[in-house]
Amino acid sequence: DVAMYTAKRAGRGRFAVYAPELDGSARDAGLRRAIETGRMVLHYQPEFALADNRITAIEALVRWDHPTHGLLMPEDFIDLADETGAIAQLGDWVLRTACREALDFPCRVAVNVSARQLAQPNLVTSVARILGETGLPGGRLTLELAEGALLPIDEHLKARLDGLCALGVTLSVDDFGLGHAALNVLRDLPVSTVKLHGSLTAGVHTDRAAHDLAAALVAAGHALGLSVVAEAAEHEAQVAALRAMGCDRAQGFGLCPPLSRTRLDERLADPARA
Ligand code: C2E
Ligand code: MG
Ligand code: MG
Ligand code: MG
């Protein structure tokens, strides 16, 4: 059914499909109920070292398995969760589930943290508690922090990030270059990795200026002692260009799409691919 297929693929349309008639507080109640009743699901997308194609980390990406509207993507509900504060509950669930499932991973697990989550004074305590409860060593967890969440840089933010580092957790700046592009964030905060937003890596194999800009950002990251990950690598020529410019790692549909836990395990068990 072509119409159905199109509706399912049109990510932006889904939110309207799922609750146009409800106001914010009703949608918030629905979201909180979904978290409590186990309707949230994690999919996992590996990240690869460009030097040898080995999996270096696996990122947890949340979905809402809605009984009537199917699998809702984060863009359909993360902003709402952030606005209403339900992100605290959702973030706790995601972190606990990802840390527990990652006990069997051959590499680190990466978990996304929104601006609102990062602003919570008890974030370090929550992460420490969840690591303790699940038994995952802090060194096996990376937190991906949205670039915008890191501004303005102040002492509270620095202390919080230092607290996370003290647990052995590594920090990554997600979607770098999307809007704020403050290179001083990379210099002044204890982050070890920068993930270049897909808009910066899109044309590296077809466009000279796009290539040179990405290469300059890779060099800037390296100059600051960071490793650089390219997001949204969709084509083989793009991956080759990123490898040639010295980008450390890449993630994207062209390498491996987000997978259910079952499909991830199949992929990890396949020696020809993993
Ligand atoms: P992100 O952390 O930058 O995650 C990457 C997004 O890009 C994912 O979308 C992924 O499916 C998509 N992607 C991967 N490879 C490609 C590619 O080759 N091309 C393109 N065009 N896209 C690709 P997804 O899963 O819809 O997540 C969207 C965003 O939602 C994430 O962006 C992250 O910011 C947020 N998010 C996801 N899960 C969580 C979560 O548990 N907590 C929080 N706070 N945010 C989350
Ligand atoms: Mg991410
Ligand atoms: Mg990203
Ligand atoms: Mg993104």
From TrEMBL:
It comes from the Bacteria. Residues 24-272 form the EAL domain. This is Diguanylate cyclase (GGDEF)-like protein. The lineage of its organism: Bacteria, Bacillati, Actinomycetota, Actinomycetes, Micromonosporales. The chain holds residues 478 to 751 of 751 of the full protein.
